[in-house]
Amino acid sequence: MTIGFRVLQRQRKVDPQVVDQFRELPVANVSDVMSRMTAAGSRLRPLHAGGILAGPALTVKTRPGDNLMVHKALQMAEAGDVIVVDAGGDLSNAIIGELMLAHAEKIGLAGIVINGAVRDYGAIRTSRFPVFAAGVTHRGPYKDGPGEVNVPIAIDGMVIEPGDLILGDDDGLLCVPFGDTTTIYADAKAKQAAEAKTMAATQEGNVSKPWVDETLTRLGCEGV
């Protein structure tokens, strides 16, 4: 099989129950309990009208400006999947547009992530079908390959393997590794509960933060 031009089958993916659990958590809380070390870069932004992205990754790696393998991924995808495309972050040519997104929504995908550009932004921004991308251009794609489906990809240092959990909200995009979902969910759920207590105390007027001066003193700050 040729490296760089191949279609593989996904060997595992996160369960729908796991996806539903994470859908209730802010991406920021999940990021915090992952030591703030995992991110897909600030350029990948939600372009749709609003709504949570959550589902197992079906990965695509393609050369910049070419979407042949994205069409193949659409043929292979299952309801609830998130197609994640690493197109090198190039913004010269759109990888996907309104027609392909209509196809994706029709077959029940949870969303699309493009490390590259999209077009037909007018339609995307009025739709609630989740689309994350690095930019917008009117220039269309090529369909010549090469590319790969269901291989590990990396977006700004965030490694995504086929079947990993993809999460996205207004703050950005995150990948939770397949084997770590149980631990990360428990930690993020506890983080969310702790923040809820802090918010309740703030609403009641308790805004004392003794830890600020304690930290400054420990660090040797003058004048505290």
From TrEMBL:
Binding, Mg(2+): D120
Query: Which chain regions cross the lipid bilayer?
Result: none
Q: Name one GO biological process term.
A: methylation
Which chain positions lie within coiled-coil regions? none
Query: Which Pfam family is an annotated match for this chain, by its short name?
Result: RraA-like
Keywords in alphabetical order, please: Magnesium, Metal-binding, Methyltransferase, Transferase
The GO molecular function terms of this record are:
metal ion binding; methyltransferase activity
| Chain residues that bind substrate | G97, E98, L99, M100, R119
Obligatory cofactor(s): Mg(2+); a divalent metal cation
Record's protein name: Putative 4-hydroxy-4-methyl-2-oxoglutarate aldolase
Q: Identify the species of origin.
A: Microvirga aerophila
Lineage of origin: Bacteria, Pseudomonadati, Pseudomonadota, Alphaproteobacteria, Hyphomicrobiales
